[in-house]
Design brief:
alpha/beta; about 30% helix
């Protein structure tokens, strides 16, 4: 449990990666364990403006209902759970993970973005730089 009294989880997922299913599982598992949980999603346009982001907050049992957020607060994220490595880079760029607070869990699998595919020659963003950024921000 974070200092804020709840755990925040952000799942950025491109269509078909199961981000919605995963966020629902986290909410349902937390509720089954007696926690208070809330999840939301913000649609994206995958390769153009970003992935769909699923955001979950899990609170310990309490007498009053907590006030929940519909979107994570940059720098105040507990867990970034990404099924695709480039999404970690996008979330770092948006300021969500914090080295002092965030645990990053990510697949090393890559789906190349439109910008990587249209470059003449080799336009793929170096995986080593994505991994180094993930280490630096977790």
């Amino acid at each position: 449990m974070s200092e804020a009294g709840f755990v925040s989880v952000l799942i950025p997922a491109v269509g078909g990666q199961g981000g919605g299913v995963l966020s629902e599982w986290i909410v349902e598992a937390a509720i089954a364990d007696g926690q208070i949980a809330h999840g939301t999603s913000i649609p994206g346009v995958a390769q153009r403006t970003g992935s769909t982001t699923y955001y979950v907050e899990v609170f310990p049992p309490r007498a009053e209902e907590p006030t929940v957020s519909l979107y994570p607060v940059p720098g105040a994220l507990d867990v970034l759970l990404a099924p695709e490595l480039l999404e970690v880079g996008r979330m770092i760029e948006l300021g969500f993970p914090s080295p002092a607070r965030t645990t990053i869990i990510a697949s090393t699998h890559r789906l190349y973005s439109i910008h990587e595919k249209i470059v003449t020659g080799h336009g793929i963003y170096p995986i080593e730089q994505l991994q180094a950024a993930a280490r630096a921000f977790s």
